[in-house]
Amino acid sequence: MIDTRTAPYAVLLLRVITGVYMLTHGLIKLFVFTPAGTAGYFQSIGLPGWLGVVTMVIEIVGGIALVLGLGTRLVALIMVPVLLGAALFGHGGNGFTFSNAGGGWEYPVLWAFVMAAIAGLGDGAYALFPLGRKTKI
């Protein structure tokens, strides 16, 4: 049974913390690794360099959107393939555990499922611009 009094706030918490994590990852790519470094890394693992910059932008813009509640369902759905791509291409060869050298694939897969859950749950409380149908939890 879902507690309709607290569920919107639980979704808010999940949405905001996930957005903060995505924003942080994008800003690390921007300010620490730089766009050129991020593109170079993507090329080193056999992906086009421009995809690294696109990933960085998706993480930054998507992270902000999640924190603010701007199109939560759509943003979360967009994040799922980004995170699965990170698991497959960036961490897939490093084993399961994220504490392995280079980080294993468990962490980005976990976040992909979290994003899928957020897409299913919707905006939660205090969303600035909800997209999609309104449902009561």
TrEMBL record:
It is found in: Cell membrane. Keywords: Cell membrane, Membrane, Transmembrane, Transmembrane helix. InterPro entries: DoxX (IPR032808), DoxX-like_oxidoreductase (IPR051907). The chain crosses the membrane at residues 12-33, 45-67, 74-90, 110-129. Pfam families: DoxX. Its main location: membrane. Belongs to the DoxX family. This is DoxX family membrane protein.
